[in-house]
Amino acid sequence: MTDDPALSGLSGSIIHDVIVPARAPWLHHVAAGQTLRIVDVEGNQAVDFLIYAAADDAERYSAQDTVAVQGNLFLKTGTVLLSNEGRPMMTIAASAVEYHDTIGGACSCESNTLRYGHHTKAQHACVDNFLEANLTEGRGKRDIVSNINFFMNVPVEEDGTLGIVDGISAPGLTVDLRAEMDVIVVVSNCPQINNPCNAFNPTPVRMIVAA
Amino acid sequence: MSQTADPKAAREHARAQGGTRVEAMPILPPVADDLPAGVTPPDLVWEETISPGGYASRRLSRGTRLRLIDTSGDACASLNIFNAEMPPERLNVADTVKVQWNAYLGTGKLLLSDMGRVLMSIIADDAETHDTFCGTSNAATNAAKYGEGRNSGAYPNGRDRLILGAAKHGLTRRDVHPCVNLFKGTRIEADGTITPVVGPFAPGRSVILRAEMDVVVVIANCPHVRDPRPEWNSAPLRATTWRGPVTAEDDPVRNAAPEGLRAFLNVEDYYRR
User: Fold this and answer.
1) Predicted TM-score (pTM) of this structure
2) Which residue ranges make up each domain of chain A?
């Protein structure tokens, strides 16, 4: 276990270590001070990510507050992930990938009908994962806001053109998130197969919590 | 002797205020002397000037046109939009930019819901400085920048204004999601840097939106969160709406792009009852 490169550099004891299967949701409570490491096990797997304050889940991650305060669209090492009320929820303590996305949102059955056609409506999608996980704690559709997409690449061109393009991650790369308050993390291990966010092949990711 | 020492005197005092005209107020019934060609006064639905730092929320029927005018060049219209009959369906800013493959709003752009439908479309725009990235201010950002940001203070913040507007349609803090900003813009540099484009601008710039569904629109008029000026600057925002036809099958905005067309098809499917 100590030779596991996925644990390299994590301080403290490992209190949680799971594989999230391809296409699946995941929900976990992370206490202030703990570090959550996400391992992109096979490379270029988008991890759709929401955060709720454990003490008051009407306070949640805000993509717009996060990018507005840092003055840049890309999430990088040092980025403070802010709530809709302007408070730090988690900090990107380390990232082996240069930047992550927070403008592309989550795929849904409904948006898939727009982007690809109505033949994709039956395909599994991130919003359904977010719903399934949140519903276990009493949150619903109105609680699903713009999310983070770790390991996903969405450049914006000069004329405003943007899109999900080939990823810049690789097998075994990680991102470490330090909780700044007690939070609930809700993840969709993205099942999308119509764009390159998962290299057209959804794969498992690993979630490790160190305390 | 006070003018308000007994109920009858207080009533007279209150009633004497009726009829006062100020710049920022609703006009009932609505009157507007600058309607576009083909729009007649009986079509008018709503005429209101929203105060600097103020807000408004209103239910609009499918087909209604909403014209916003930045009357003096320093307003910022932060919008949340809900499906009026099913408010868990609301503006999804991420889907709006992703589905249209572009982040910059302007004539012909759609404001999409999280259910693959178009809530409103932009049918005219002579401002072209808008923002889908930064959202609006909150109590914390205003406190850091202006010393305070309370609804009850001099420098109200956009989020708390959107919450009040949404609350008047039965919604709560949970329902105030990412917004779009009209009149105050951003541009994105190659390295992801967000450059604010916040003027102040020439007076009188306008945007006309068309309700593609029965919607509740919530508008906050507070300084853009990335406004670099140290002072809290806001200006009146005029809202005018009039009735109009539901978007026809040959409408150029409806048919401009395959993704948008499918959003209209989804709207038409929703109303097929």
Assistant:
1) 0.97
2) 24-203
